Amino acid sequence: MNDNCHVVVILNWYGRDDTVACVESVLYGSPDVTVLVVDNGSFDGALGEVSDLERVQTLQLPHNLGFAGGMNRGLAFALEAGATMVTILNNDTLIPPGAMRVLHRHAESGAAVSPTVMYRDDPTRVWFGGGAIDMPDGYPHHIAPQELQGCVDGVRETSVLAGCCITATSDTWRRVGLFDERFFLNFEDSEWSLRARAAGVRLGVACDARIFHAVSASFRGAASTLGTYYFLRNGLLFTRIAGAGTTARMRFIRRFSPLRRRQLGVRDVIRGGIVAGFAIGSYLLGRFGEAPPFLQRRAREWAVESSGDLALER
């Protein structure tokens, strides 16, 4: 990895095909960048698929450190190797030619920038064009496309960035710090955005750079159950960090509890209660990072049972 370069860090976790497609799109349309692919302990062959490509380096992690931990290892590697600009990028994105160059240009001033993110399966629909934090509830959300403000010099100001793609100079990454690994997965980008703004870093969305994102491609099978756990637990942590009170966290639980879903069967109610109980209990006891081993085992068992049910329905 050469000094004075723009490094794109792509995190892989059981997503080999998505990762290869993402890497190829970056290399094809961004001749000025180097790609670092980090495998988050999945050993699924993704690194072998891309390791021989020009301008690609790889980093194998021994086990899954979550989005926050995996990206942090990639960021630290890139910064220590002398990168002057670093982009973190979801592996389920596709990057059109020129997009990275635009992000680089907007971030050179010291700002942290996300692109306009479109749905990969519907390229005309905006998934992220800016975000806000609802107060007093302290809940971060995407602003609806019809409510987005205009752009100034190709950039729209935003309160939160989209963790699927963030570009910033190495000085900015060091100034703000890396992701808070208590989150493991979900809300780490919003918390980083809070710290960035507190450090005086301007956050923006590049209106003239678009990428395409297969939203929630990683949340399948057991990961779906665990995603619910992380969302509920981490949402409670984030609302506290954002300055919301206890009443706001109670509203968050009522709004996002898996038990609120319609047409739940008895089995789903029991499972939802277990997930919600673990998430709330973990928050109250200060147990952050990776989900408890018991819940991980149950999530895998439930995924197998659900697969069997689908097979019987066919």
Overview of the structural elements:
- It is a single chain.
- The chain has about 325 residues and is α/β, with parallel strands linked by helices.
- It folds into two domains: about 5-215, Spore Coat Polysaccharide Biosynthesis Protein SpsA, Chain A (Alpha-Beta Complex), CATH 3.90.550.60; about 220-314.
- The chain is built from ten helices and twelve strands.
- The strands form three sheets. The chain has a five-stranded mixed sheet with strand order 3-2-1-4-11, sandwiched between helices. Strands 5, 6, 7, 10 and 12 form a five-stranded mixed sheet that branches.
- The longest helix is centred in the C-terminal third of the chain and has 21 residues, at about 295-314.
- It is globular.
- It starts with 5 loop residues before the first strand and ends with a helix.
- The relative contact order is 0.12.
Give descriptors for this structure.
single chain, 314 residues, alpha/beta, 2 domains, five-stranded mixed β-sheet, 12 strands, globular
